[in-house]
Amino acid sequence: MKTIRQNLFQNWHLMRWVRLALGAYIAYYAIGHADILSGLIAAFFLFQAFTNTGCAGGSCAVPPPKSRSGENVQE
Fold it and tell me: I need a surface site. Which of 15, 21, 56, 59 has the fewest CB within 10 A?
């Protein structure tokens, strides 16, 4: 199991940098305009950047329904 330090300092790819930059920009805007909603959105993007989470690469995809034996499932 990875430690927090390993998760923070390894595997920085382009999408992670984009999330960090977007979160920092929105946080700057939220502080400057005292906007709570923008602050929450910034926190969401920063959390994704620091924990390396998100829906990239189909990791949040819903699995296809399982067909019962003997039945033909048509879409």
Answer: 59
| CA distances in angstroms from 11 to 6, 42, 49, listed in the order given | 9, 21, 11
Of residues 59, 51, 42, the one with CA closest to residue 16: 51
Q: Are 26 and 44 in contact (CB under 8 A)?
A: no
DSSP summary character for residue 11? -
Amino acid at 66: K
Instruction: Name the CA dihedral angle for 32, 36, 42, 47, rounded to a multiple of 10 degrees.
Output: 140
pTM for the whole structure? 0.66
Phi, psi (deg, nearest 5) at residue 3: -85, 170
